[in-house]
Design a protein that fits this description.
homotrimer, 487 residues, mainly beta, two-stranded antiparallel sheet, 20 strands
Chain lengths: 487, 487, 487
């Protein structure tokens, strides 16, 4: 069709080329041609005007743009989240213990590398409804459902952990918010804070703030100073000290007042935690839990690989006291003592070593004292590196090395024994993905093999944990397949 | 191509710009100009025709309209529902009892004002799939998931109440439905009836009809008479008499045959309830439960504020006997006696007092006898008013006053004591919203403070309820934050 | 701007209208007309060029196509799945036992006709996110939630079986996959296999493969040979031998290596099952469970009604040994003995008998030995036919006849008794649907009445099953309503 129209001018050119050879160019023929031209021009203009009317270009543009806004998730319903699912098997073909928090330091937050080390099917699916109101204000409603099971079966109603993890409303671009509040957004409900961040390769948040409450983001007190405030409530209960899953019966409430401040690449966060009457709770060995706590973090979000090459890096130093001594999951652990103190360093970076090799090293280390029993003392540090070799458009080889040192003296808490030792893990993972190229490209479909070993002394720490359980005493091979995606 | 067209006028302009300055307007130059005009006109017409052909306006319109139909939720997937989430705290910073059904009259349906009085995170998310079939018939599939927890934590798998609340199919515009059935829609499955309605400020349905069954809506037996029929099944079990949460094991079934009729602004509803062998169930004090019941409601849906000003109002009078004596949740309470009788009045209105002040008063009152024990006698009445002062485009002050009188003689049922007394609550709630203006604008983000007091005698009603529990004996201050939305 | 262009032709029209009435067509008027024509033509061309620029036709087409791709579910979020919900009542108006697996042969997989025989609300809702990447590769993320309850209530948190049934990633059209892999797709996670198929009218999969693992579909080893490979893990636990609901604690793992091969209309499937240490599990009567199993299926997917008329048919012969002796749910039953053997025949077809009558007959039969106890012996066969008479565009009458023979000798397993006998069911179901015409048109809204009878001997098989329970000893009438849909 395009060809047809493009050939038309050629026919016209032929007609015109013959015209000059007509014998007489008298006034009559000129008059006729002029009249014909005038007639045609009027018809053309009428047609053009009609087209302008019946195909209102601006209207079509507006309507398509509105639909695209919707399709992109800026308006209406969208789904976002994270999921992983796979098998983690021993060399006997049976399931094997695993997970980044598998070591004795795990319940303290001491994660090791996650690659080839995850036994669960985990999904966090967030349904978002965005709407732009007539006055320009935007509202977001989010409800998130999440589940985590370790069975391999398809029907898992008995093991199901399915729960509603977030339900909140957030408003921004409010016309009556001006000055320092012009770019601010406000929210209330149950949520995970927007400004948490993690070391992906250790499956650990650097700081994790979540619960039910309200807050305000992005107040600009000066050109270079952006600030957030929030109040989060949480519920304590007699839960084991764990990394996730801290259900509460609502009988005791903890409140965290949080302020996050950004100045250039720096982030300054301070948190005050209060849990009235938490000292009424009986802690096993006669100690009593803290009623309050304080927590602070200084972080730097770098836009290069430690100034050495292109990439990024983040480094954070966290310190907490009392209920703040759980430095990652702020305000989430009610078993902490008044004297509890913890200091943690978290660090990671990403860079390309060559066009086809990516490197992401990370470090996580913590010292803490008087945490759950007077006189306890926990020290651990993890060093991890994930390396990837991009081979084709759809395939890369991933490698991960993980090392953890731990020196844990629980002072008799929960019948645990003092231990000291090292843990190491090496993983190789042939990985398929739709389009390689970068640290954050997902989904990935992986095969993997890991070798994991640790000092035998660590098996004595806790008779209830994985280390030292049957068939899991060190020197383990594990194998598996896994899908991981965010969306 | 676009480049080609855009360059043409330049060439033409050059030709035209030079033409007038030719010394003589002789035939030759006229001939040249005419030829050029003819050539250009033909090219223009060809271009115009090409544009008309390759951009079929009607087709584009059809396709964009189809996409807009989808975007608006008239076709395809959409999400609708309701959610609230927030903190309800005592002046000690701990969670405090609350909820519109917190008083002794609550389990009977005696709600008080909900503003600043809700301790839970509740969400009802309905996923809708709509489809228009080739013959013009429409089908709707709806699945709703809902949850309600009072913990403030983000991960709530242990407290989760997450459940599938609705699964049904509804069909309308069926070509073979004619005459009185022309506008009718039919449905089957598990659902909440379409034509329930509520007093929003008391969090109470005026009538709530739900369960698993089938029905037909909108039969037109005459110009002014619209009618619905439905059969709903429900399951009884040994559940406490409560306002929500009446899980059943499926061991006994209750059937409700329901007819709803609309004549002008009037609604007439009649319900017949049957639960075979329900009298086999042992009720605590030797009484036996009813096997059947009857229920009726007359309602008026007004399109002004009681004829006084612009706005709306609704008033309903309900009466039930036997299993119909739970007049709100029709057929949902299997503990009612054969002699049980209940009569309820429900009323509310909305109006603007001035351009910036909104008022929504409501009244709910019930008398009932021989309900759960022969000789019992329950009387209660709630008066509530929510007032809002719209201050900016994004902010309003809300106020709520709530008063409840109750005179409850349970005749020893469940060890409860006869009490009589009053309850009062006053709440102030600074409220942010994307765009103020009207009673039904959501989302809202609220801060609130409430003062609640009641006659001490009410603390003796039930040793298991909130009234009289530790730290909750009257004269309470409570504070909180909350998001509420529907979507 | 549109206004500006639309007014221009009026000025032109005025100019043109006056021009022809000039007394003399001398050079001056010709000059004026030529100049006016040249001016207008330039304006017209400019306008046309402007329109071309602001309404790029190809771009509009591209954008609308992208939006339509999204609307059709080929890109972005979509919802698919299956649901049914309704009431199944006895002639006393109470719930009655039912379901296709209600007979003693049911736990062995011996389904009977489902029409008018389903007491549950079941929903399987799959949320799909599809994305086409820049290099042409496609990715699918799917998360499915499912529930099944038999209560009729709307709020079912206590009975809820809600669980996440699938979480997986699938990739196809990968640029680096060539040769035999060009059309292949790869996947990992928790899923139900793509290539399962069922006899819809018996609610039975012919083969059901599900669990957590990874695999590859659609390798083409030759022109006529298409092949799949997969590894699926499952978890065993002390679950009753049932048709669904086989939750596992993850303590023992079963692995199934599966290969599916298509040659023309033929399908050849082989499966090898391994469950290390499964023989450590104590089976009731001293027997021990198998550690491994083998399973094979030959199926023919016919594109006519057994060569007799238009329609389709499928026939499959399955055989399994050891852990493969559960021939339908491959690798899902850990109670099978080493000597267990089972052979099953499955067959169904669909055809139109006349323009308004549809017929779908099916047959399912199995013999098995040494299944759960040495010496046990189970034989059963079901014949079923569903007949539909399409009456209007929105209404059809459906009829179903179902017969099952069973001869079951459990050799004392779980205290069950050897029985032999017959079961029969006849159902009539007036059915409403948006648009009749075909076997797979849904949704359907049905009313139904069934008469069910069986040999009294069957009541003695298992004291815990429905047969022989109070009010369910044979010769039952049942009634109900139901919605069924897939989407």
């Amino acid at each position: 069709m395009a060809f047809y129209f493009r050939t038309l001018p050629i026919a016209a050119a032929v007609a015109l080329a013959t015209a000059p050879f007509s014998a007489q160019a008298n006034e009559t023929s000129i008059e006729a041609r002029l009249a014909e031209l005038e007639r045609q021009l009027e018809a053309t203009r009428a047609e053009l005007a009609a087209q302008n009317t019946s195909a209102p270009v601006e209207d079509t543009e507006t309507r398509i743009s509105a639909l695209e806004r919707r399709a992109s998730g800026q308006e209406g319903l969208s789904l976002s989240g994270y999921a992983r699912s796979g098998l983690l098997l021993s060399d006997e073909g049976k399931s094997i213990s695993g997970g980044p928090y598998v070591t004795p330091a795990g319940p303290l937050g001491g994660a090791v590398g996650r690659l080839g080390n995850e036994p669960d099917t985990y999904v966090n699916a967030m349904f978002n409804l965005r709407r732009q109101h007539d006055n320009g204000a935007n509202s977001l409603f989010r409800v998130a459902i999440a589940d985590s099971v370790s069975t391999s079966n398809d029907w898992t109603s008995e093991e199901s952990q399915l729960n509603v993890r977030q339900v909140y409303v957030e408003l921004d671009n409010l016309p009556s918010f001006t000055g320092a509040f012009e770019d601010a957004s406000i929210w209330a409900g149950k949520r995970i804070d927007r400004d948490t961040f993690d070391i992906h390769w250790l499956d650990t948040d650097v700081v994790f703030l979540a619960g039910t409450g309200a807050g305000i983001y992005d107040m600009n007190f000066s050109d270079n100073w952006r600030s957030n405030f929030a109040l989060y409530g949480r519920s304590f209960s007699d839960f084991p000290v764990g990394e996730r899953d801290d259900p509460g019966t609502g009988s005791t409430d903890s409140l965290t007042l949080s302020s996050n401040n950004y100045v250039g690449n720096w982030q300054f966060m301070v948190n005050a935690i209060s849990a009235a009457d938490n000292d009424d709770r009986l802690i096993e060995n006669g100690d009593t839990a803290a009623n309050s706590g304080a927590h602070g973090m200084v972080a730097y979000h770098g836009d290069s690989f430690f100034g050495l090459s292109e990439g990024n890096f983040k480094v954070a130093l966290l310190h907490g006291q009392g209920l703040g001594a759980e430095v990652k999951r702020i305000g989430a652990n009610g078993d902490l003592l008044d004297d509890a103190q913890a200091t943690r360093l978290a660090l990671y970076g990403t860079t390309y070593l060559s066009p086809n090799w990516r490197l992401a090293p990370s470090l996580l280390a913590e010292v803490s004292d008087d945490r759950f029993a007077e006189g306890d003392n926990y020290r651990w540090a993890t060093v991890n590196a994930r390396l990837a070799n991009e081979i084709t458009s759809n395939f890369e080889m991933q490698y991960e090395l993980s090392y953890q040192f731990m020196d844990l003296d629980p002072a008799g808490y929960k019948g645990r024994n003092a231990v000291s030792g090292n843990f190491g893990k090496a993983t190789i993972a042939p990985t398929f993905k739709p389009n390689v190229g970068g640290f954050w490209q997902r989904p990935e479909i992986r095969l993997f093999a890991s070798y994991t070993d640790w000092d035998k002394e660590l098996n004595n720490y806790d008779s209830g944990d994985a280390f030292g359980s049957e068939g899991f005493t060190g020197g383990q091979w594990s194998f598996g397949v896994q899908a991981e995606t965010w969306f």
